[in-house]
Design a protein that fits this description.
Strand content: 25-35%
Protein name: Addiction module toxin RelE
Oligomer: single chain
Largest sheet: 5 strands, mixed
Shape: globular
CATH architecture: 2-Layer Sandwich
Strand order of the largest sheet: 2-7-6-5-4
CATH topology: YaeB-like fold
Order of helices and strands: EEHHEEEEEH
InterPro entries: HigB-like (IPR009241), RelE/ParE_toxin_dom_sf (IPR035093)
Distance between the termini: 29 Å
CATH superfamily: RelE-like
Pfam families: Gp49
Structural class: alpha+beta
Radius of gyration: 13 Å
Length: 118
């Protein structure tokens, strides 16, 4: 991972993500902010922070705070490979409790994409 010091990617977010984010405590928000900053400025992005979801065009952003695992479903608007993308949209976030959470959250993210017409 190379810190470039310049913005490589613009990260936008939906109202659904904003609603999730505003309900997080300060420590978790700080970790989210640092992870988003890394996505913007690091090339390539480590799979510790971003991972492609299997059988999908979507990715997940991973944030760990203590024993809690937070996930945010995201999407690249201008390149199929997130590393090459210059614009990323954070669709929706959730606290991961089990693998069952993914199906529901992926469906929610796909609905957001369709509603916004991305």
């Amino acid at each position: 991972m190379e810190e470039t010091g310049k913005v490589l990617r613009v990260v936008r977010h939906t109202d659904e993500f904003d609603e999730f984010y505003k309900n997080l405590d300060a420590k978790v928000k700080d970790k989210f902010d640092r992870t988003i900053d890394m996505i913007c400025t690091i090339y390539p992005i480590s799979t510790k922070y971003i991972k492609k979801l299997i059988n999908s065009d979507l990715y997940e952003m991973r944030v760990s705070v203590g024993t809690n695992e937070y996930r945010t479903i995201l999407f690249s608007t201008n390149h199929p490979n997130i590393i090459e993308a210059t614009e990323i949209i954070l669709l929706n976030g959730f606290l991961k409790k089990s693998n069952k959470d993914y199906d529901k959250q992926i469906k929610k993210a796909e609905k957001i994409i369709n509603d916004v017409n991305i």
